């Protein structure tokens, strides 16, 4: 029941253009992400200082199903959780967040080993294949502030890297339109309901996943072969 309900919720937000793309067998995410149709993005000129132990990055930009699926396939990433950031704890549940008035964005919490992948590299993946940073309060077929593009920084170093990289991409005219990604302090991350965790992996044949999320992972493998890892090498959060 949950799976059917979720599919209906997602597809009711498809625009007429997205519907035409689906019928034509073309993914909205394929057209949206920079790396699929443009030259590869540059490496960040500014990156985080070396750190000991696992680090955390929290990012938002569209449905968290796709974001989780992408970052679960990045080497050095140890755990990815789908959840909500930007709003209050008492509104951090799917039905409330879907109203678009809670301040939350569908987000992912990424626990990673900085000796294997840097914060700057995660941002390069994010901007290249995980989201379209030029879409305001939407991502492909999903519309609303809960789908906005946000980097939730956990410390001054992450803020420095994020703002510098956005400025670098802007100066390089890496995208045809201005980047609207927000860079805001992380005030809290609230893990989403269990049926959202690993959704793309558990439902690979659902049309929404096939057309919107699977191509992102394919682009990751194509553009970042040195960073790509298969499913078996990652551990993800499941709630019980």
From TrEMBL:
The active site is at residue 63. Residues 1-28 form the signal peptide. Its EC number is 1.8.4.11. PROSITE patterns: PROKAR_LIPOPROTEIN. Pfam families: PMSR (PF01625). The keyword Flavoprotein does not apply. Keywords: Oxidoreductase, Signal. It is an enzyme of class 1 (oxidoreductase). GO terms for molecular function: L-methionine:thioredoxin-disulfide S-oxidoreductase activity; peptide-methionine (S)-S-oxide reductase activity. Belongs to the MsrA Met sulfoxide reductase family. Has an important function as a repair enzyme for proteins that have been inactivated by oxidation. Catalyzes the reversible oxidation-reduction of methionine sulfoxide in proteins to methionine. This is Peptide methionine sulfoxide reductase MsrA. The gene is msrA.
